[in-house]
C-alpha cells in the first residue's frame, strides 16, 4: 500500500512539472535558463516512481512518517490550491529596484585603496587587484560600446530581449542620454516615496525564481501620473533627462504620451 502511495506522489509531481513545462507556465516560477533542471527532475521522479512500482511485492525497507509524505505532497496541494499567477507590483515589498547586471558588481579600487595595496600588500594582492581592474575594464568597454550605439538611435525602444542591456547602459551613463527619445512598456508602479507626478513603467525581473523577483525600470514624470491606476499596463514615450536623487545622478523619463496596452503573455523579464 505504501509503495502505491509513493508511486502516486512521485509520478504526480512529475506530471505536474511536465504540465508546467509544456504550457510554459514554468516561466512564472523560474528563469527559463533553468528549465533543464526541471527536465532532469521530471526524469528522476519518473525513475523513482517506477522503482516503487517494481517494489510493490517487496516489504518496506524503512518506514516513512507523516512529515516525509507531507514534504513531497505539499507541492501538489499548492499547485491545485493556488494555480500559476503573475506577480504584480504589490509583491515587491514596496520597494523599487533599478537593475545593474552582476558584471557591474565588480568594483574598481579607489585611489586610496590602491595606494594602501601598493604600500602594504604583497605581490599576490597586487596581482588580484590587477585582475579586478582588468575585469572591470572589460565589462565597461562593452557597455561603452553599447552606449555609443544607443546614442545614434532616433528612439531607444525597450523590449523583452534588450530590456536589461539597455537599462544597464542608461543607468551607467545617464548624462550621455539626456534629450534622447525613449519608448518602454510596463505596469504602473509607485511607492510612498514617489511624488504625485512620478511613477515607474516597471517590469518584474526574475533572476533565478519568483522568490527574488523585483521591480525594475526608469522613473517617469507626468502631470497626470496620479490618474494612472497601479498595475495597469502602459506604453510610455518621452524624453530622457537627469535628476539628482539621493545624491545620485538618475535618468528620468519626461513623459510625452501614455498608451494603455494589454500585458504580455509572460510579463517577466530575465537577465541573461
Low-confidence runs of at least 5 consecutive residues: 99-124
Average the pLDDT over all residues and give the rounded result.
Answer: 80
| Shape label | elongated
Order of helices and strands: HHHHHEHEEEEEEE
Count of domain modules: 2
Content of β-strand = 15-25%
CATH level 1 name of the largest domain: Mainly Beta
Radius of gyration: 25 Å
Topology of this structure?
Elements: H1 2-22, H2 35-54, H3 66-81, H4 111-120, H5 123-151, E1 155-157, H6 163-172, E2 181-189, E3 198-205, E4 214-216, E5 219-221, E6 233-245, E7 248-260, E8 268-269
Parallel strand pairs: 1-2, 3-8, 5-7
Antiparallel strand pairs: 2-3, 2-6, 3-4, 3-5, 6-7
Helix pairs in contact: 1-2, 1-3, 5-6
Describe the structure.
With 272 residues, this protein is of the alpha/beta class. The chain has 2 domains: 2-85; 102-119 and 139-269, OB fold (Dihydrolipoamide Acetyltransferase, E2P) (Beta Barrel), CATH 2.40.50. It contains 6 helices and 8 strands, in the order αααααβαβββββββ. The protein has a 5-stranded mixed β-barrel. Strand 1 (155-157), helix 6 and strand 2 form a beta-alpha-beta unit. Helix 1 packs antiparallel against helix 2, helix 1 runs parallel beside helix 3 (66-81) and helix 5 (123-151) packs across helix 6 (163-172). The radius of gyration is 25 Å and the shape is elongated. The two termini are 47 Å apart. Residues 99-124 have low confidence and may be disordered.
Based on the model shown, name its key terms.
272 residues; alpha/beta; OB fold (Dihydrolipoamide Acetyltransferase, E2P); 2 domains; 5-stranded mixed β-barrel; 6 helices; elongated
Amino acid at each position: 500500500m505504501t509503495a502505491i502511495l509513493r508511486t502516486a506522489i512521485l509520478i504526480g509531481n512529475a506530471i505536474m512539472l511536465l504540465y508546467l513545462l509544456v504550457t510554459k507556465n514554468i516561466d512564472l516560477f523560474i528563469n527559463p535558463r533553468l528549465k533543464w533542471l526541471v527536465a532532469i527532475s521530471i526524469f528522476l521522479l519518473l525513475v523513482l516512481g517506477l522503482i516503487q512500482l517494481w517494489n510493490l511485492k517487496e516489504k518496506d525497507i524503512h518506514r516513512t512518517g507523516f512529515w516525509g509524505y507531507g514534504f513531497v505532497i505539499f507541492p501538489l496541494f499548492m499547485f491545485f490550491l493556488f494555480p500559476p499567477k503573475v506577480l504584480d507590483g504589490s509583491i515587491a515589498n514596496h520597494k523599487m529596484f533599478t537593475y545593474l547586471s552582476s558584471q557591474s558588481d565588480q568594483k574598481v579600487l579607489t585611489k586610496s585603496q590602491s595606494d594602501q595595496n601598493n604600500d602594504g600588500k604583497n605581490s599576490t594582492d597586487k596581482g588580484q587587484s590587477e585582475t579586478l581592474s582588468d575585469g572591470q575594464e572589460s565589462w565597461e568597454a562593452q557597455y561603452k560600446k553599447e552606449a555609443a550605439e544607443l546614442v545614434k538611435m532616433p528612439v531607444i525602444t525597450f523590449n523583452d530581449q534588450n530590456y536589461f542591456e539597455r537599462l544597464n547602459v542608461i543607468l551607467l551613463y545617464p548624462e550621455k542620454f539626456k534629450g534622447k527619445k525613449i519608448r518602454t512598456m510596463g505596469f504602473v508602479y509607485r511607492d510612498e516615496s514617489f511624488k504625485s507626478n512620478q511613477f515607474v513603467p516597471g517590469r518584474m525581473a526574475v533572476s533565478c525564481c519568483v522568490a527574488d523577483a523585483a521591480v525594475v525600470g526608469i522613473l517617469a514624470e507626468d502631470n497626470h501620473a496620479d490618474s494612472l491606476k497601479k498595475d495597469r499596463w502602459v506604453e510610455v514615450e518621452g524624453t530622457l533627462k537627469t535628476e539628482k536623487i539621493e545624491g545620485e545622478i538618475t535618468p528620468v523619463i519626461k513623459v510625452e504620451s501614455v498608451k494603455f496596452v494589454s500585458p504580455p503573455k509572460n510579463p517577466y523579464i530575465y537577465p541573461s
